[in-house]
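Q: Convert this sequence to structure tokens.
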Amino acid sequence: KNSSNKKGVCIMKNILVPIDGSQPSRNALQHAIDIANAYSAELTIVNITNADAVLDSFDVFEDMTDEKVKDLTKLAKDKSGYVLEKAMDAVPENLMVHTVQLVSTPEIGILSEADKCNADLIVMGRRGSHSLSEQLLGSASTYVLAHAKCPVLLAHNEKEGPYQRILVPADGSEESLKAVRYAVEFAKADGASVTIFHVANMRDLIAEETALDQKKRGLEDLTDRLRQSADRVFALCKAAIADQKDGVDIHFVANIGRPGPTILKKAEKDGSDLLIMGSRGRSGLASILLGSVSRYITTHSGLPVMIVK
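A:
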């Protein structure tokens, strides 16, 4: 288990950064460095030589001689060492940092190393490839988001100083309340403001009503019920951060619309520089590893997005 207090907010002690030398992974490293500085956390930087890429170098099984495998492995190890060396150049001397070289499939290697170093946060770039020179992300980020035991921050852009405006979508689910608590902690570390944003989705509200209720109450009072829904969510959020909120500029805003597009529109309007959200909302099924809204946001947002579980 990752380190956390009684309400489930991580005390950031160990941050894992998979890096492949690409610009997205360099962006991720910069985000991780700033977070590590704010929390005096340790960094583990891992470079993974994609085992599949090594095997793909052979057209037929007969070509896979011990000598060729040895040569390719040495080449990959040398490249891995160079990538880690360049990454270390970016890390300030005041931080404790560990470097790890692995030969694995990227997603399995990342999760395995996260368990080994007891990671409280994984910070990843958004894209990569499966070549030997850029061994890392691509579809791996989706897999890690779904299966990681700790929060995952997807760094889609370069870090430009401290986070200033953090947006947190909230629907009253336990995961969204945990995201709100994370947001407040991050805001304290960086001096940021927090906007807790509830999107009242009319379809969800109608679905919660039985046919009898709809017939009896009609649809004309939907606006009032949407407002009541937002009030309930905000009351839960305020209770969740009652012992954290001092000194943090917090705003509560509710809109009506489809959650994914409405959240991104709000982020753009506010100039948000970090999105923190739960991996699943109230409607999330146990069998769905990453909720539909989380998938939409991580796919379409150009901002760094932190997914909390």
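The mean pLDDT is 82.
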